[in-house]
Design goal:
Elements (H helix, E strand, L loop, with lengths): L25 H9 L7 H15 L12 H14 L5 H14 L27 H15 L6 H16 L7 H12 L8 H13 L12 H8 L5 H17 L11 H14 L4
Helix pairs in contact: 1-2, 1-3, 2-3, 3-4, 3-5, 4-5, 5-6, 5-7, 7-9, 8-10, 9-11
Length: about 280
């Protein structure tokens, strides 16, 4: 029985980590290393080397993959879950991505429509492309320790300003979800009053069941809130926790689609909150 931040005790009925056994995806390798203790096993190392090489394959001389921002984001996110540390390849890719996406304009559409399949197993949802790409770039800059770059800092300030001007717009929750994801990983902006305001607004939309209405993504939102200590985030987390426990399936996982990814998001959140 696990205690959650002084709230009611909640037990997960099944071991959620079993779903990652033998997985070679970036999320699966992360789970096998961090949660299943396989880092010293030769089979994990072989799977790790194979996946990292597949992520690096095809990188262009300019640092991108196929001069495609979304594909470059996908590769970098996979490298974040596996390699973790900054490498020459990662730094070169981040330099290219920043030049392509951080253009000081959050309103325009700079790229063709992004197919939903291209965002599978990424912590973002389909929304206005320019803002999505900015949020993804800021997220990656923060997780790789590059958030102090002048252009990155300027775009974090733009996101905060966007939240203030668009706070009453109920039609942009997909965009707000992507903004929240970028903000919660920032050492500075995760504590920003505008971030707290966004989280409080999110609480106003949470149902008594623990769900949020569409298009607010449930698993991504649970994971994002688990990065924060704000009281509003804690209340929403506690309200969602019994729903998570009740919705867990016999294989330990969650969701009917993207099962490993959704389970990864939930377990990562549970670990952040010391519930597993």
């Amino acid at each position: 029985m696990k205690q959650v931040d002084g709230s009611q005790a909640v037990r997960m009925r099944y071991d959620p980590c079993q779903i990652f056994a033998q997985s070679k995806s970036p999320a699966g390798l992360y789970a096998r290393k961090k949660w299943l203790g396989e880092a010293l096993r030769p089979v994990w190392q072989n799977d790790f080397d194979e996946t990292v090489q597949s992520l690096l394959d095809g990188q262009s001389a300019d640092g991108s993959w196929s001069q495609d921002p979304v594909e470059t984001i996908r590769r970098l996110f996979g490298l974040h879950l596996t390699v973790r540390e900054k490498t020459g390849e990662i730094l070169k890719a981040m330099e290219w991505l920043g030049r392509e996406t951080l253009n000081y304009d959050l309103s325009g559409t700079y790229f063709d429509d992004i197919p939903a399949a291209a965002l599978r197993e990424l912590p973002f949802v389909n929304a206005r492309q320019s803002l999505l790409l900015v949020c993804a770039t800021l997220f990656l800059a923060s997780v790789f320790g590059l958030e102090n770059n002048e252009r990155t800092e300027a775009h974090y300030r733009l996101l905060s300003s966007w939240l203030v001007t668009g706070k009453d717009n109920e039609e942009v929750w997909s965009e707000k979800s992507n903004i929240l994801r970028a903000l919660v990983v920032s050492p500075v902006y995760s504590q920003n009053p505008d971030t707290h305001g966004l989280v409080a607004d999110l609480e106003n939309h949470q149902k008594p069941s623990g769900l949020w209405p569409a298009p607010i993504p449930f698993f991504l939102t649970v994971n994002a809130l688990a990065h924060l200590d704000a009281e509003s985030a804690q209340r929403q987390w506690r309200k969602a926790l019994p729903l998570l426990a009740g919705a867990q399936q016999k294989d330990g996982g969650w969701g009917s689609d993207e099962r490993e990814w959704n389970t990864f998001l939930v377990v990562h959140a549970l670990k952040n909150k010391h519930c597993l």
